[in-house]
Write a structure and sequence with these properties.
The protein is built from 14 helices and 17 strands. It is α+β, with helices and mostly antiparallel strands and 450 residues long. The mean pLDDT is 96. It binds glutamic acid and magnesium ion. Magnesium ion binds at residues 136, 189, 196.
């Protein structure tokens, strides 16, 4: 779409306001809106944003990053192809934005521009990456005292859970389809009030945009039904966590073949697939600082929770961080993919997807080998056995994850100095802020914001 197409579509649909959105380091979707009468000029010139906003953590505490202070600004420049009329907010449409600096170049701290640079790297290797988030979320009702109670305590995959979720799930799916997102499978999950809805894969940038649309849509639909929806990684300490597993596959740009597919391999995974998995596993202790980036994430990332706690890989192994997913019968090549389970939906998806693919491509470039796949829960092995297999424990806190990002030079190099430094600072501030508080404070804040 070009600018004139967007303006025409907005006017014809009776849109009054158009939101220019971005996602910050805390994974919060934020933005500014323009009246439709100014849409054209704003699409050409952008909307001004103080550069300080990226130094804001998920409690709106501004961190002292010199480039992100009271002085200085960037422009929110919308991507016309991302224009969607919001099915859940009357007369409002939205577009995803890049943050462009005043010399008209992508700002070095902009997460969406970071992802675009990784897409570009893949393209230069002749590769198109397809991906999707597979989100779990909790449906609850807010009590007078500000805490949340799940809408049901039905059993995993049970028809009782389906009945409890039905009205809101139907609305979510209709709103997703109206935004060009195809739902795939739905089921009530293990946790009380927990539901999972998967959507079709898309190219990397669209997959990240879709994750934002998905989160917004689910939260809005729940509200319509008098509920609150949350993607918080661990909404209740005694219940299953909400994963935001990511599925991805690499495609040859020229031949359009799935580069992960090898029918002759016992796991049906190609050499490039093993190398990609090896890159992920090598960088995973730091990578979770971007894919599991909230304080609450580390309550979920524990052994025995099917969320993965070790940097291991295995075929259909639900305790391995990287799972070789078995293919769909009758659709084998197309459905060959890897799944990263050490991921949740408190993440900024531009940073998470960008870093995952950069790590995987690093594995391909360096021809890394992932070692043996494991067909056992890594927690059941002894330290010695894990050591022999090269299986590392993932960080147990956000602070540890940031330390791992610092230890692995890959992150500073891949993200660039400003993005790396400012991101770390914001994350450490979140760790510090929640360390001083009781667990209830953490649970409520993560429930509300994610
Ligand atoms: N709820 C689990 C998680 O936190 C995932 C369960 C599953 O679908 O395998 O990742
Ligand atoms: Mg699940």
């Amino acid at each position: 779409m070009n600018i004139d197409d967007v303006v025409r579509e907005a006017e014809q649909a009776g849109v009054e306001l158009v939101a220019f959105l971005y996602v910050d380091y805390g994974g919060i979707t934020r933005g500014k809106l323009t009246h439709v009468d100014h849409l054209k000029s704003r699409m050409i010139g952008g909307i001004g944003l103080t550069s300080a906003m990226l130094a804001m953590n998920m409690l709106d505490q501004l961190q002292p990053v010199p480039e992100m202070s009271a002085v200085g600004e960037v422009r929110l420049m919308p991507d016309p192809d991302s224009f969607r009329i919001l099915p859940y907010q009357p007369k409002v449409a939205a577009m995803m934005c890049d943050q462009i600096d005043l010399s008209h170049r992508p700002w070095a701290a902009c997460p969406r521009s970071f992802l675009k640079s990784i897409v570009q790297q893949a393209e230069e290797m002749g590769i198109e990456v397809m991906a999707t988030y597979e989100d779990e979320f909790t449906l609850a009702v807010k009590k007078e005292d500000g805490t949340y109670v799940p809408i049901d305590d039905s059993l995993c995959f049970s028809t009782a859970g389906m009945a409890a979720g039905n009205p809101v799930i139907l609305d979510i799916m209709a709103a997703l389809k109206a935004q060009g997102i195809q739902p795939e499978q739905y089921y009530p999950e293990l946790g009380h009030g927990q539901h999972e809805l998967s959507i079709s894969p898309a190219d990397l940038l669209t997959a990240a945009d879709n994750q934002i649309r998905f989160r917004e849509t689910v939260k809005a639909a729940a509200k319509e039904h008098g509920m609150a929806a949350s993607f918080a990684p661990k909404p209740f300490v005694d219940q299953a966590g909400n994963g935001g597993h990511i599925h991805f596959s690499l495609w040859d740009k020229q031949t359009k073949r799935n580069l992960f597919w090898n029918p002759d391999d016992p796991n049906h995974l190609s050499e490039a697939g093993y190398q990609f998995a090896a890159g992920l596993l090598e960088h995973l202790p730091g990578l979770v600082g971007l894919t599991c980036p909230s304080v609450n994430s580390y309550r979920r990332l524990q052994p025995g929770a099917w969320s993965s706690a070790y940097a291991a890989f295995g075929k259909d192994n639900r305790e391995a961080a990287v799972r070789i997913a078995s293919t769909f019968w009758g659709n084998e090549e197309k459905s060959m993919n890897l799944e990263l389970k050490a991921s949740d939906s408190s993440a900024n998806p531009y940073l998470a997807l960008g870093a995952i693919v950069a790590a995987g491509l690093d594995g391909i470039r360096r021809k890394l080998v992932p070692g043996d796949s494991v067909d056992i829960d890594p927690a059941k092995l002894t330290d010695e056995e894990r050591g022999k297999l090269g299986i590392k424990r993932l960080p147990a806190s956000l602070q540890e994850a940031v330390a791992q990002m610092e230890k692995d030079a890959f992150f500073a190099e891949t993200m660039g100095e400003l993005l790396f430094r400012s991101y770390k600072q914001v994350k450490l501030s979140e760790h510090a802020a929640f360390s001083e508080q009781a667990v209830e404070f953490e649970l409520v804040h993560h429930f509300k914001k994610y």
